[in-house]
Structure formats: C-alpha cells, structure tokens
C-alpha cells in the first residue's frame, strides 16, 4: 500500500515537472512545425536565472516569501529575451524551409545558449534551496514529501488550464487554432501568420524557462541540464503526439508514473523505463496517442 502511494505521489510530481518542461516544445511544434531543440537552452536559462536571482535576493536578508515571485519574473525575462532573439534574429529567415534543416538550426541555437549560460554564470553550480525549504514537508501515509513538490503540481495544473482556456475561449486562441489547422488558408484569410509564430515562440520559450526556474530550488543548477531535459521532453511529446497539448499532459503522466514505478519496484529499470514506454506506444500508435491530423495536399 505504501509503495502504491509513493508511486502515485512521485509519479504525479514528476509528471507535473515534465509537463511544464515539455508543453512549450509541443506548442511550438503544433503551430510552427519546428522541433525546437533550443528548448533545452530555454530551460537552462530559466534555471540559472532563477537560482542566481534567488541567491542574490537572499544574500541581503530579505524575507523568503518574496523569493517565490522571483521565479516567474526571471523565467519571463529569460524566455522573452532569448526567445525574441532567436525567433526574430534567426528563425524568421528560415520559415518554409525543410524540417530537418530547422532541427539543425535550433540545435545550433541550443549549443549557443549553452555557451551563453556559461559566459554569464560560469561553470560553478548554483543552489537556491530557500523557497523549497520554506514550504516544509507534508506527510502522506507517513511518507514525508516536500511542500514545494505540490506547488509544482499546482503550477502545472494552472498552466494547463490557462492554455486550454486561451486556445478555446479567446479570439487569439481560436485564430491560432486556424493557423495550426492550415497555414496557407490562414494567410489567405488575412491572418498575420508571422505574428502568431512570434507570439507562439515567445510563449513556448517562456514555458520552457518557467520549467527550469521552478526546478532550480530543488536541484543543483549545473552546466548540461538543458541536454537532459530536451531528451525527456522529446519522449513526452512523442508519446502524446507532437503538437498536441492534451497529448503532452497524457505523455507526461505516462512517463511520470512509469519512472516512479520503476524507481520503487525495480530501480535498475529507471535508466530505460521512459524509452521502453515510448517504444511500446510508438509500436501501436506510430505518431503518438493524440497526434494532430495532417491535411493531404492536392
């Protein structure tokens, strides 16, 4: 019974983190048809900016409560600045090119962002434990969990709800759905597709940075964390269906619970459990569980 509870809580917490870290990636692909490898760089920028900002703030002896506000602020700054620089400075000249070429371009951007983080913050690790420590622990069936884990779960639910509401209940969201459905028809109807690309890329970059910023209080922020997250985020969106927000939710839950089950039942399987699940899903649904329908060009 305790093992089942531990799997449920750990799986939900890991799934929430995975969703926050991958939803921006699937959003960008759904709208722009770009597999954005630079997403890992946005995650790393958010983590470094958050850890640095919290550390700088806490050095002055300020109350820890305001440190929670630093997390979304630093994520917004990192996501908007880096996202705008890449989309306006590079990607807008590449729209309409082959998808493989776009992958190579975003991979180059990822390598540049990795070096940018080292130039700004160096190669030392950053630790911003104060927000996680401030929320204490919560006992569930005698098992202690950090309160910060449940904060991440709440933020993931809030982001998922806001994305759904924005896409289905706002004029901009409905226009964006038209762009997703057919880019050429959208342009013929007078929709400024390039503007929507920019907005989408900034939102996706900010969500990636937010995933890193929220993770910073729970980990030691070191060089290379961006490469790790892009692999797991890619597994999530492939399982759920590339470009699908509901797919990102289901994919994150599947990966989260699979990893938690392997950790608690057979720890050596943790190394390959995510990829085993991905292979099993793709064997049955080659394009993922909720893959977007592709229109046939005549």
TrEMBL record:
Subcellular location as annotated: Cell membrane
Domain of life: Bacteria
Annotated Pfam families: BPD_transp_2 (PF02653)
GO cellular component: plasma membrane
Keywords: Amino-acid transport, Cell membrane, Membrane, Transmembrane, Transmembrane helix, Transport
UniProt keyword Lipid metabolism, yes or no: no
Any one GO molecular-function label of the UniProt entry: transmembrane transporter activity
GO biological process: amino acid transport
InterPro entries for this protein: ABC_transp_permease, BCAA_transport_permease
Transmembrane feature ranges: 6-29, 41-58, 64-87, 99-121, 148-167, 196-215, 221-240, 272-293
Main localization of the protein described in the UniProt heading: membrane
Membrane topology: Multi-pass membrane protein
Family stated for the protein in its record: Belongs to the binding-protein-dependent transport system permease family. LivHM subfamily.
UniProt protein name: High-affinity branched-chain amino acid transport system permease protein LivH
Organism placement in taxonomy: Bacteria, Pseudomonadati, Pseudomonadota, Alphaproteobacteria, Rhodobacterales
